[in-house]
Amino acid sequence: MTVVSPSLTLERRILGDSALIISLDEVGRGALAGPVAVGAAVMDAAGARRRVPEGLRDSKLVTERRRPDVAERATAWVRASSVGWASAAEVDEVGIIRALGLAASRAVDAVVAQGTSTAGAVVLLDGNHDYLSAVHHSVLDVRPVIKGDRDCASVSAASVIAKVARDAHMAELHADYPQYQWDRNKGYASTEHREAIRTLGLSPLHRASWAIADAPALF
């Protein structure tokens, strides 16, 4: 299989007219347990002139062993970065799309707190649906980009930063709920995870609206 390397083609075109790009990508959308997370990576014209960090890809295309190193270099490469979160309880309360919007809004607010201005900025959101605008408190220029995490280097940076942060969080939660093996499956529907749910029931950190019925195993 040919692995596509992300580029800065779209970012450079946008930065010809705009001061900043805030790129967003989610992880944990399909998990049965734990939060959903949205990474944010801020790119300016100076950053877009620098070389894309070696090995940067959509987080799904980077091995688990290599991800922390790639995420560290991606964090150093972009102007600012953050991860926004929405809890499993929020997923149950408002649904996954609204929860993604909450996490994305919190990620944007976090880079704003670091000094990023949204005035005149373009928000690149991986996917084909804008789940941010209905939630965020200010008007943003949001542009969904299909396969953005694969093709756009700044979105790839957001992807791997969020993935490493969420994986580390799930490994920490494993200490309190080891029977679900979240250190291995990160809350997704592995065979062992599903069997533990059948045997022990749901923890307080499961998405109860999702995990009651059997789901196909992902591992």
From TrEMBL:
Manganese or magnesium. Binds 1 divalent metal ion per monomer in the absence of substrate. May bind a second metal ion after substrate binding. Gene3D superfamilies: Ribonuclease H-like superfamily/Ribonuclease H. Residues 19-219 form the RNase H type-2 domain. It catalyses: Endonucleolytic cleavage to 5'-phosphomonoester. It is an enzyme of class 3 (hydrolase). GO terms for molecular function: RNA-DNA hybrid ribonuclease activity. InterPro entries: RNase_HII (IPR022898), RNase_HII/HIII (IPR001352), RNase_HII/HIII_dom (IPR024567), RNaseH-like_sf (IPR012337), RNaseH_sf (IPR036397). Coiled coil: none annotated. Its cofactor is Mn(2+); Mg(2+). Keywords: Cytoplasm, Endonuclease, Hydrolase, Manganese, Metal-binding, Nuclease. Transmembrane segments: none annotated. It holds the Pfam family RNase_HII. Its EC number is 3.1.26.4. A divalent metal cation binds at D25, E26, D126. It is found in: Cytoplasm. The keyword Hydrolase applies. Belongs to the RNase HII family. Endonuclease that specifically degrades the RNA of RNA-DNA hybrids. This is Ribonuclease. It comes from Microbacterium galbinum. The lineage of its organism: Bacteria, Bacillati, Actinomycetota, Actinomycetes, Micrococcales.
